[in-house]
Amino acid sequence: MRLSRLLAIAAIMAAAACGNGTSVNPPPPPPPPPPPPPPPPPGGHSTTITVANNTFSPTPDTIPAGNITFHWAANAITHNVTWDSGPSTPAGSGNKTGGDPDFVAPLVAGTYHFHCSIHGAAMSGQIVVTP
Fold first, then answer.
1. Which three-class secondary structure state does DSSP give residue 6?
2. What's the Cα-to-Cα distance from 65 to each of 102, 126, 127, rounded to whole Å?
3. 3-class SS at 98?
4. Over 90: is that where the pLDDT of 1 sits?
């Protein structure tokens, strides 16, 4: 009887060791990543370019056809807008400094390159105009 009792205890212990008594569930899978953001709409970024600190900002830029405004920041030194290329050649701005009135140029669809003739290629920009 003793032997059968020991065998019964051994069988119970072996069954318990197999792990059905306290099972650990694996962690749930991570949530799916969020969807990517939608692409930006074509064109229409900014129809105003700020002139300051020897830069045109933003550039390059994509805008819809129409007017582009160049705004001289309050502390801007003398700069100008001189057109290098484009499907049309609007008039240049002439020299302006901070506080002068904005310069507005009408642009049709196409790619325009411009610079400040005072500062040369170091101060240049590009505008892509969509129809």
1. helix
2. 18, 14, 11
3. coil
4. no
CA distance 37 to 41: 12
Q: Whole-angstrom Cα distance, residue 103 to residue 49?
A: 10
Longest dimension (CA), the chain: 114
The candidate with the shortest Cα–Cα distance to 68, out of 98, 102, 113, is: 102
Q: What's the chain's length in residues? A: 131
- H/E run at residue 3: helix 2-17
Give the tens place of pLDDT for each residue, 47-93. 899 998 899 998 878 888 888 999 999 888 999 999 999 998 889 99
pLDDT at res. 71: 94
Q: Residue 31 and residue 51: Cα distance in Å, rounded?
A: 46
**DSSP, residue by residue, 12-70:** HHHHHHTTSSS--PPPPPPPPPPPPPPPPPSS-S-SEEEEETTEEES-SEEEESEEEEE
According to the model, what pLDDT value does residue 41 have?
47
Predicted model pTM = 0.63
